[in-house]
Amino acid sequence: MKKLINDPDDVVDEMLDGMVAAYPDQVRRLSDTNVLVRDDAPVDGKVGIVSGGGSGHEPTHAGYLGEGMLDGAAAGEVFSSPTADEFEALLEAADSGEGVLAVIKNYEGDVMNFETAGEMVEMEGTDVATVVVDDDVAVEDSLYTSGRRGVCGTILVHKAAGAKAAEGADLEEVQRVGQKVIDNVGTMGMALTSCVTPEKGEPTFDLPEDEIELGIGIHGEPGVERTDVMSADEITEELTESVLEDLDLDEGQEVMTIVNGMGGTPLMELFVVNRKLQEILGDHGLETWDAWVGDYMTSLDMDGCSITVCAVDEELKELLGAPAETPALTVK
Amino acid sequence: MSDEGAAAVAAVGAVAERIEAERSHLTDLDSAIGDADHGGNMARGWAAAAEAVEDLEDPEPAAVVKTAGKTLLSEVGGASGPLFGGSLVFASTELEEGITAETAVAFAETYLEKVQDRGDARVGDKTMIDALVPAVHTFKKSVEVDDMTPVEALAKAVAAAERGVDFTVPIRASKGRASYLGWRSVGHQDPGATSTLYIMEELLDVATDNVDAPDELPDHAESPTIPDGEVTED
Question: What is the mean pLDDT of residues B118-147?
Answer without folding.
Answer: 96
